[in-house]
TrEMBL record:
Keyword Metal-binding: no
Keywords assigned by UniProt, alphabetized: Signal
CDD domains reported in the protein's UniProt record: PBP1_sensor_kinase-like
Principal cellular location given in the protein's record: other
Top-rank taxon: Bacteria
PANTHER family registered for this protein in UniProt: D-ALLOSE-BINDING PERIPLASMIC PROTEIN-RELATED
GO cellular component: cell envelope
Full protein name: Monosaccharide ABC transporter substrate-binding protein, CUT2 family
Species of the source: Micromonospora tulbaghiae
Location of this chain's protein in the cell: Cell envelope
Length: 330
């Protein structure tokens, strides 16, 4: 071996030892390798679609709580406030801060796709949480199967809630968000077994309780003989209940939601207290996202699951108290 070859071998060996890790992560746009391994400090940027939603508040808490148990992890959360352009700017800002990993829960899929791809192409591991982006330019996706959840809700309507049929109002999530489209599709698949069930109206409530209430108020007036209201999340279902209560129809109309947060203001307690007939669990995935981040950044794992599908359960008055305790409610 000549002197040049020997010198090159020594340099390569020294560079690998300096990383403190057997896995070398992709380089960022400045050509600097992103190091991983135990005993290091890591900055994680979490781009949240909208902190005003109770579900997202719980998700943020789950992420922050889980991150506290991982030495060296620091999570900074940004709030897009349902503004796509702001969320794009939030991610761009994280990239200028040289974050080690990005967790993003997109407000809408298409507008966030390009900036998520930009982060991924720069070598930043990207965990897409809850809502999807278009394409394949991300490290991993964690979320529930919204089609399956919607179908479970539809089957509940077809066999249990409205076995004899009836008119249904749908209050959908934010247009352009993948859960809204998937929960709508799944619900229609589920009620198909009962042709006596008819969806007479469907309008977006943008995941917000107040808008859900105003939409339900207008639709109940237009369809006074409605039998039930299927809302894509619990806050909109609660809003619909308030609208029906104001119209003197809360006892006649049945309400269902999705999320089942184990908090005093969440859907499980609304079921237990009789305002909702049922809710369907939609786990936040916050703890799972931090655990995956730990594997990527601390364990230097390259082969991580591309997709993690979170489980669900149907919660009615019969199992509400048990579900609340099982899911860690306080």
């Amino acid at each position: 071996m000549d002197k040049r070859t020997t010198l090159l071998a020594l340099l390569v060996t020294g560079a690998l030892a300096a990383t403190g890790c057997s896995v070398e992560k992709p380089s960022d746009d400045a050509g600097q390798a992103r190091a991983c391994g135990a005993g290091k400090d890591f900055l994680i940027g979490m781009s949240q679609a909208n902190n005003a939603e109770p579900y997202r508040q719980v998700m943020n808490n789950d992420v922050q709580t889980a991150a506290k148990s991982v030495p060296g992890f620091r999570v900074v959360v940004s709030d897009a406030a349902q503004d796509n352009s702001k969320q794009v700017a939030d991610v761009e800002n994280f990239l200028t801060q040289k974050i080690d990993l990005l967790i993003v829960s997109p407000n809408e899929a298409k507008p966030l796709t390009a900036v998520v791809k930009k982060a991924y192409d720069q070598g930043v591991p990207v965990i897409v949480l809850d809502r999807k982006v278009e394409g394949e330019a991300y490290t991993a996706f964690i979320g529930g199967d919204n089609v399956a959840i919607g179908k479970a809700a539809g089957e509940f309507y077809a066999t249990t809630l409205l076995p004899g049929g009836g008119k249904v109002i749908e209050i959908a999530g934010l247009p352009g968000s993948t859960p809204a489209a998937e929960r709508a599709q799944g619900f229609r698949d589920g009620i198909a077994a009962n042709p006596k069930i008819q969806i007479v109206a469907s309008q977006p409530g943008d995941w917000l309780r107040e808008k859900g209430q105003s939409v339900a108020d207008a639709l109940i007036k237009t369809h006074p003989d409605v039998s039930a209201i299927y809302a894509h999340n619990d806050p909109m279902a609660e809003g619909a209940y308030l609208a029906a209560k104001s119209a003197g129809k809360a006892q006649r109309i049945k309400f269902t939601g999705i999320d089942a947060l184990p908090v005093p203001s969440g859907g499980i307690k609304a079921v237990e207290q009789g305002r909702l007939a049922a809710t369907f669990q939609y786990a936040t995935g916050g703890r799972e996202a931090v655990e995956l981040a730990r594997k990527i950044l601390v364990d230097c794992a390259e082969d991580v699951p591309r997709t993690t599908t979170l489980g669900t359960m149907r919660i009615t008055k019969e199992n509400a108290a048990e579900a609340y305790a099982k899911l860690g409610g306080l």
